[in-house]
Amino acid sequence: MLNQTVFKLMLGALLAFAYLFNQGWSSKCAADIPTVKQTQVGFKKPPIFLVEVQNNCPMCPVIDVHVKCGNFSQDHVNPNLFKVLGHNDCVVNGGLPLAPLQKISFNYSHRKFVMSPSIWYFQCE
Length: 125
Ligand SMILES: *[C@@H]1O[C@H](CO)[C@@H](O)[C@H](O)[C@H]1NC(C)=O
Ligand SMILES: *[C@@H]1O[C@H](CO)[C@@H](O)[C@H](O)[C@H]1NC(C)=O
Prior knowledge:
Bound molecules: 2-acetamido-2-deoxy-beta-D-glucopyranose
InterPro entries: TPD1
Helix content: 10-25%
Number of helices: 1
Radius of gyration: 21 Å
Signal peptide: 1-26
Organism: Thalictrum thalictroides
Strand content: 35-45%
Number of domains: 2
Number of strands: 7
Keywords: Signal
Protein name: Phd finger protein
């Protein structure tokens, strides 16, 4: 009887701990959303932009990173790096994981396309 109570308490504490631990991991990443940075590196016409998509979470890989990419055309980049799925929807690295702090970079030569991250999932376990 006493043993069972102790067991239940311990199980409860363990579950609470596991829950907090898990939340802790995800919230650590939540402040580190993936970024899409563009730097102009060519100044002729058309200009050249360097795009850097980075997983800013130092703990966990991120998968299935989608970017709002407007009318970006597949002609500008290797689809393994950055695949145009449709208007305003591009996927980075074929949706495969970016390791903690990993960066995917490419250049395109065109008038600037506005880009921002839209979807991503951290893999914290
Ligand atoms: C994107 O392409 C569509 C259809 O070709 C066009 O209507 C729209 O103006 C374009 N948007 C930009 C920002 O160039
Ligand atoms: C992009 O272009 C710049 C300037 O030409 C070059 O230094 C850089 O290595 C290029 N980066 C990639 C990822 O192609």
